[in-house]
Design brief:
The protein starts with a helix and ends with a helix. It is globular. Helix 4 (about 100-110) links the parallel strand 3 and strand 4 (about 115). It has a 4-stranded parallel beta sheet, with helices on one face. The chain has a two-stranded antiparallel ribbon with strand order 5-6. The longest helix is centred in the middle third of the chain and has 25 residues, at about 155-180. By secondary structure, the protein is of the alpha/beta class. The protein has helices at about 1-10, 25-40, 70-85, 100-110, 120-125, 145-150, 155-180, 205-210, 225-230, 245-260; strands spanning about 20, 45-50, 90-95, 115, 195-200, 200-205. It has one domain. The chain binds iron/sulfur cluster. Iron/sulfur cluster binds near residues 129, 130 and 138.
Length: about 260
């Protein structure tokens, strides 16, 4: 995969090259990062999608059941890239249920450099979630090649709605930044966002997703919660190694989740 990125960049005369993924088995992402380091080749961007939702065309069982949710995914990707000391080479794009100004703020606070929105833009365009994207019978003309249905999408009317949605969503994110006393999205950190984690308990993102020191995955001892991912991954393959999980790993994992539950 990293060889292919290198080749694409050469063949395109240096155009930005990146890939999109939804985090599944964590060791796969460690494997990608190890391969990047080994080959000294980095994509310009990684787009992180969330496991929530799915297009109208996705298999029902895949919606909400396959892949890590977006917030966890963005924080994880940021931390691993930072742990390997390679975040400086790569922009992170968050994609998945991004629809409001606060969604933009949340993802940027977690580590995204920018956000993609697909569904929200489709709603602005007139999508009614009829779930027929794959059948060429989209009743609103959004996802069809059928000329009689395509007529339903009046570009002159709909382009204004999409433009307004984009402009006002960005404006509301900027308003939220101002309310937090910030001048630039890059000033956002995990310390700025709180979320409710139980009926009588809120926690800041920095408590839920603690940062790891930059470069801390370049030498042992690794941060506790990344030890297993490091042990299970190699630069040569996406497949996990045959490393056997020991009781020590379980003890580490439990102490990490205990800390989270106690709000540490
Ligand atoms: S309205 Fe069109 S784009 Fe939206 S879910 Fe239905 S088929 Fe897909």
């Amino acid at each position: 995969m990293i060889t292919f990125i290198k080749k694409l960049r050469e063949l395109s005369g240096g155009k930005p090259v990146g890939f999109k993924l939804c985090i599944g088995r964590k060791s796969e992402f460690f494997a990608i990062c190890k391969a990047m380091l080994e080959m000294n080749t980095y994509p310009d961007f990684i787009t992180v999608d969330g496991g929530e939702g799915g297009t109208g065309a996705s298999p029902q069982e895949f919606s909400n059941a396959v892949g890590m949710p977006l917030r966890e995914g963005v924080a994880f990707v940021y931390d691993v890239l930072s742990g390997f000391g390679i975040k400086k080479h790569i922009k992170i794009i968050a994609s998945g249920k991004v629809a409001s100004g606060f969604d933009l703020v949340k993802n940027i606070a977690l580590g995204a450099d920018m956000c993609n929105a697909a569904r929200a833009m489709m709603f602005a365009l007139g999508c009614i979630q009829a779930l027929e994207c794959n059948s060429n019978t989209c009743p609103t003309g959004v996802a069809t090649q059928d000329p009689s249905l395509m007529k339903g999408l009046v570009v002159d009317d709909k382009k204004v709605r999409v433009f307004n949605f984009h402009r006002l969503t960005v404006a509301s994110a900027v308003e939220l930044l101002g309310a937090a006393g910030l001048h630039h999205p890059y000033q956002l950190t995990r310390a700025y966002i709180n979320r409710r984690i139980a009926q009588n308990l809120t926690q800041s993102y920095i408590e839920t997703f603690p940062y790891i020191p930059e470069g801390s995955l370049l030498q042992t001892p690794y941060p506790l919660r990344f030890e297993l991912g490091m042990a299970l991954s190699t630069a040569a393959s996406f497949a996990p190694t045959d490393y056997k999980v020991s009781s020590i790993d379980y003890a580490h994992a439990n102490s990490y989740s205990d800390n989270l539950n106690q709000g540490h």
